[in-house]
Amino acid sequence: MTHVPLRRYPAALELLHYPKVYDRRSLRIVAIGDRGEELAAGDPAAHHFAVLVTERSTEARQEHAIVDFERQADAEPFRRRIAAMLDVDGEIASAAMCLWEEVLKVISGHSGAPSAIRALILAASHNHGACALRDAVQAFAERCDLEWSAAHESGTFDDSFDWEWCPAWLATRVEWDPSGVDLPRVKERTASSEALATPADHAAAA
Question: Residue 88, CB half-sphere, CA atoms under 13 Å: how many?
Fold first, then answer.
Protein backbone atom coordinates (compact mmCIF):
# COMPACT_ATOMS: atom_id res chain seq x y z
CA MET A 1 0.00 0.00 0.00
CA THR A 2 1.35 3.42 -0.99
CA HIS A 3 0.80 6.10 1.59
CA VAL A 4 -0.47 9.53 0.58
CA PRO A 5 1.83 12.52 1.13
CA LEU A 6 1.99 14.11 4.55
CA ARG A 7 2.04 17.56 3.01
CA ARG A 8 1.96 19.22 -0.42
CA TYR A 9 3.65 22.52 -1.18
CA PRO A 10 2.68 25.27 -3.67
CA ALA A 11 5.46 24.20 -6.06
CA ALA A 12 3.68 20.84 -6.49
CA LEU A 13 0.85 22.56 -8.35
CA GLU A 14 3.04 25.07 -10.16
CA LEU A 15 5.29 22.45 -11.75
CA LEU A 16 2.21 20.80 -13.25
CA HIS A 17 1.49 24.00 -15.16
CA TYR A 18 5.05 25.14 -15.84
CA PRO A 19 7.28 22.04 -16.05
CA LYS A 20 9.99 23.85 -18.04
CA VAL A 21 10.63 26.14 -15.06
CA TYR A 22 12.07 23.24 -13.02
CA ASP A 23 15.24 21.22 -13.52
CA ARG A 24 14.39 17.53 -13.73
CA ARG A 25 17.96 16.51 -12.97
CA SER A 26 17.89 18.40 -9.66
CA LEU A 27 15.15 16.22 -8.13
CA ARG A 28 16.25 14.66 -4.86
CA ILE A 29 14.84 13.09 -1.71
CA VAL A 30 15.98 14.50 1.61
CA ALA A 31 15.56 13.04 5.09
CA ILE A 32 14.08 15.64 7.47
CA GLY A 33 14.32 15.59 11.26
CA ASP A 34 11.52 16.46 13.68
CA ARG A 35 12.79 20.06 13.90
CA GLY A 36 12.82 20.50 10.13
CA GLU A 37 16.57 20.01 9.75
CA GLU A 38 18.09 18.10 6.83
CA LEU A 39 19.65 14.81 7.92
CA ALA A 40 22.23 12.56 6.33
CA ALA A 41 20.95 9.76 4.12
CA GLY A 42 19.99 6.72 6.16
CA ASP A 43 19.76 8.60 9.46
CA PRO A 44 17.27 6.65 11.64
CA ALA A 45 16.14 9.93 13.24
CA ALA A 46 14.34 10.95 10.02
CA HIS A 47 10.82 12.18 10.75
CA HIS A 48 9.77 12.36 7.08
CA PHE A 49 11.20 12.58 3.57
CA ALA A 50 10.87 15.62 1.32
CA VAL A 51 11.04 15.60 -2.47
CA LEU A 52 12.88 18.74 -3.65
CA VAL A 53 13.40 20.36 -7.06
CA THR A 54 15.36 23.40 -8.25
CA GLU A 55 14.24 26.16 -10.60
CA ARG A 56 16.08 26.46 -13.90
CA SER A 57 15.63 30.15 -14.56
CA THR A 58 16.72 31.92 -11.40
CA GLU A 59 20.34 32.90 -10.84
CA ALA A 60 20.07 31.72 -7.25
CA ARG A 61 18.80 28.30 -8.42
CA GLN A 62 16.21 28.27 -5.67
CA GLU A 63 15.22 24.85 -4.41
CA HIS A 64 11.60 24.09 -3.57
CA ALA A 65 9.94 21.34 -1.56
CA ILE A 66 7.22 19.61 -3.57
CA VAL A 67 5.81 17.10 -1.12
CA ASP A 68 6.61 15.24 2.11
CA PHE A 69 6.22 11.51 2.70
CA GLU A 70 6.42 9.55 5.91
CA ARG A 71 8.41 6.78 4.22
CA GLN A 72 11.26 7.02 1.73
CA ALA A 73 9.85 3.98 -0.05
CA ASP A 74 6.83 6.11 -1.00
CA ALA A 75 8.86 9.18 -1.88
CA GLU A 76 10.98 7.43 -4.53
CA PRO A 77 8.12 6.35 -6.87
CA PHE A 78 6.75 9.89 -6.64
CA ARG A 79 10.18 11.33 -7.51
CA ARG A 80 10.36 9.06 -10.57
CA ARG A 81 6.89 10.12 -11.73
CA ILE A 82 7.78 13.80 -11.37
CA ALA A 83 11.05 13.22 -13.25
CA ALA A 84 9.11 11.68 -16.14
CA MET A 85 6.63 14.56 -16.10
CA LEU A 86 9.40 17.18 -16.15
CA ASP A 87 11.17 15.40 -19.00
CA VAL A 88 9.59 17.76 -21.54
CA ASP A 89 12.40 17.17 -24.08
CA GLY A 90 12.14 13.37 -23.92
CA GLU A 91 15.69 12.90 -22.67
CA ILE A 92 14.84 9.90 -20.46
CA ALA A 93 13.07 8.17 -23.34
CA SER A 94 16.02 8.92 -25.62
CA ALA A 95 18.45 7.49 -23.04
CA ALA A 96 16.34 4.34 -22.77
CA MET A 97 16.41 3.89 -26.55
CA CYS A 98 20.18 4.42 -26.70
CA LEU A 99 20.79 1.88 -23.93
CA TRP A 100 18.52 -0.70 -25.51
CA GLU A 101 20.08 -0.13 -28.93
CA GLU A 102 23.48 -0.89 -27.44
CA VAL A 103 22.18 -4.05 -25.76
CA LEU A 104 20.76 -5.26 -29.10
CA LYS A 105 24.06 -4.51 -30.82
CA VAL A 106 25.93 -6.49 -28.16
CA ILE A 107 23.55 -9.44 -28.50
CA SER A 108 23.85 -9.45 -32.29
CA GLY A 109 27.63 -9.18 -32.18
CA HIS A 110 27.73 -5.77 -33.85
CA SER A 111 29.12 -3.86 -30.86
CA GLY A 112 32.67 -3.23 -29.79
CA ALA A 113 31.85 -4.43 -26.28
CA PRO A 114 34.39 -6.74 -24.62
CA SER A 115 33.64 -10.43 -24.93
CA ALA A 116 33.14 -10.69 -21.17
CA ILE A 117 30.39 -8.04 -21.26
CA ARG A 118 28.74 -9.74 -24.24
CA ALA A 119 28.67 -13.05 -22.36
CA LEU A 120 26.95 -11.40 -19.39
CA ILE A 121 24.32 -9.68 -21.55
CA LEU A 122 23.68 -12.86 -23.54
CA ALA A 123 23.15 -14.80 -20.30
CA ALA A 124 20.54 -12.26 -19.15
CA SER A 125 18.84 -12.33 -22.56
CA HIS A 126 18.71 -16.13 -22.70
CA ASN A 127 17.30 -16.41 -19.18
CA HIS A 128 14.73 -13.61 -19.27
CA GLY A 129 13.93 -12.87 -22.89
CA ALA A 130 13.83 -9.56 -24.71
CA CYS A 131 10.79 -8.04 -22.99
CA ALA A 132 12.00 -8.49 -19.40
CA LEU A 133 15.54 -7.42 -20.26
CA ARG A 134 14.25 -4.36 -22.13
CA ASP A 135 12.18 -3.31 -19.11
CA ALA A 136 15.20 -3.70 -16.83
CA VAL A 137 17.40 -1.62 -19.13
CA GLN A 138 14.69 1.01 -19.57
CA ALA A 139 14.65 1.50 -15.80
CA PHE A 140 18.33 2.55 -15.96
CA ALA A 141 17.67 5.44 -18.34
CA GLU A 142 17.23 8.24 -15.82
CA ARG A 143 20.33 7.28 -13.82
CA CYS A 144 22.40 6.95 -16.99
CA ASP A 145 21.27 10.38 -18.18
CA LEU A 146 21.91 12.00 -14.79
CA GLU A 147 25.45 10.65 -14.58
CA TRP A 148 26.22 11.65 -18.17
CA SER A 149 24.96 15.18 -17.46
CA ALA A 150 27.14 15.44 -14.34
CA ALA A 151 30.21 14.18 -16.23
CA HIS A 152 29.52 16.47 -19.18
CA GLU A 153 29.06 19.56 -17.01
CA SER A 154 32.19 18.84 -14.97
CA GLY A 155 34.26 18.37 -18.12
CA THR A 156 35.26 14.80 -17.27
CA PHE A 157 33.47 13.41 -20.34
CA ASP A 158 33.08 15.22 -23.65
CA ASP A 159 32.20 12.49 -26.15
CA SER A 160 28.81 11.45 -27.49
CA PHE A 161 26.08 10.07 -25.28
CA ASP A 162 24.87 7.27 -27.54
CA TRP A 163 28.04 5.91 -29.14
CA GLU A 164 30.54 6.33 -26.30
CA TRP A 165 28.79 6.94 -22.99
CA CYS A 166 26.07 4.29 -23.13
CA PRO A 167 28.37 1.35 -24.00
CA ALA A 168 30.81 2.41 -21.28
CA TRP A 169 28.01 2.94 -18.77
CA LEU A 170 26.50 -0.50 -19.39
CA ALA A 171 29.94 -2.07 -18.96
CA THR A 172 31.01 -0.23 -15.82
CA ARG A 173 27.90 0.89 -13.94
CA VAL A 174 25.60 -2.11 -14.36
CA GLU A 175 25.91 -5.30 -12.35
CA TRP A 176 25.28 -8.29 -14.62
CA ASP A 177 24.68 -11.71 -13.05
CA PRO A 178 27.17 -14.16 -14.65
CA SER A 179 24.57 -16.92 -14.48
CA GLY A 180 21.89 -14.73 -16.01
CA VAL A 181 19.42 -15.79 -13.32
CA ASP A 182 19.04 -12.28 -11.87
CA LEU A 183 18.17 -9.31 -14.03
CA PRO A 184 20.84 -6.60 -14.23
CA ARG A 185 20.83 -3.71 -11.79
CA VAL A 186 22.73 -0.47 -11.34
CA LYS A 187 25.72 -0.74 -9.04
CA GLU A 188 25.40 1.28 -5.87
CA ARG A 189 28.02 3.94 -5.40
CA THR A 190 30.46 3.82 -2.50
CA ALA A 191 33.06 6.31 -1.34
CA SER A 192 35.70 4.39 -3.27
CA SER A 193 33.73 4.09 -6.55
CA GLU A 194 32.69 7.63 -7.36
CA ALA A 195 34.39 7.77 -10.76
CA LEU A 196 31.94 7.92 -13.63
CA ALA A 197 32.03 5.47 -16.52
CA THR A 198 34.29 6.53 -19.37
CA PRO A 199 35.47 4.91 -22.60
CA ALA A 200 38.79 4.28 -20.82
CA ASP A 201 36.94 2.33 -18.13
CA HIS A 202 35.17 0.43 -20.88
CA ALA A 203 38.45 -0.60 -22.45
CA ALA A 204 39.84 -1.60 -19.08
CA ALA A 205 36.85 -3.90 -18.54
CA ALA A 206 37.74 -5.89 -21.67
Answer: 11
**Torsions phi, psi of 200, nearest 5?**
-65, -40
Model confidence at 199: pLDDT above 60: no
| Interatomic CA distance for residues 151 and 206, integer angstroms | 22
Which carries the bigger pLDDT value, residue 75 or residue 193?
75
pLDDT at 24 over 80: yes
Q: Which of 109, 104, 95 minimizes the C-alpha distance to 130?
A: 104
Name the pairing type of β-strands 48-55 and 174-175.
Answer: unpaired
Is 80 a residue whose pLDDT tops 60? yes
Q: Which one, of 100, 88, 199, lies nearest residue 148 by Cα?
A: 199
* pLDDT(191) > 50: no
Instruction: Look at strands 7-8 and 185-186 and give their pairing.
Output: unpaired
pLDDT for 7 equals: 72
Give the strand pairing for 7-8 and 63-69: antiparallel
Q: Where are the domains of the chain?
A: 7-86, 91-204
Spell out the SS3 assignment of 51-102: EEEEECCCCCCCEEEEEEECCHHHHHHHHHHHHHHHCCCCHHHHHHHHHHHH
